Amino acid sequence: MRNIYDYREVLKNAAAYKLTGQTRIYLHGNYDLPWDHVTSVGPGCCIRLYMTTDVNCIATIDGFEFRWSVDIERPDANGKGHYEIDLEACTMLLSRLPARPRAQLQKYFAECADKVLAKGKEWTAIAISQMTYADRLFELSRETT
After folding, report:
1. The whole model's pTM is what?
2. What domain range is 11 assigned to?
């Protein structure tokens, strides 16, 4: 499969693409994307800590379906036991979408928020138990018999 970086290249050569039946196009890179034509968004296929960490975008123009994904977590989060959500990317993504896909994205963000909150509660419980252990160890270290 050929990497396509600019959807306008496909539209300029529409006849050739349609002649071969290639109407689903995967866009790569962070170039101009057809944000105004996005018809739907949904969870991607990158999963970390039981949550998808990218968003698939689908835009339709002149019989073509353009697809690309946007990461909502920083790449350096991989291997860590907690989420590192890229809030700037999430805000950018939300701001570029038309109303219907924006509502779909907000629903997805709410699902993600539930998972991130659950992880936060898990880590809070761990932190509280660690503090309790430390407090008791300090008490024991000062105890005189």
Report:
1. 0.84
2. 7-142
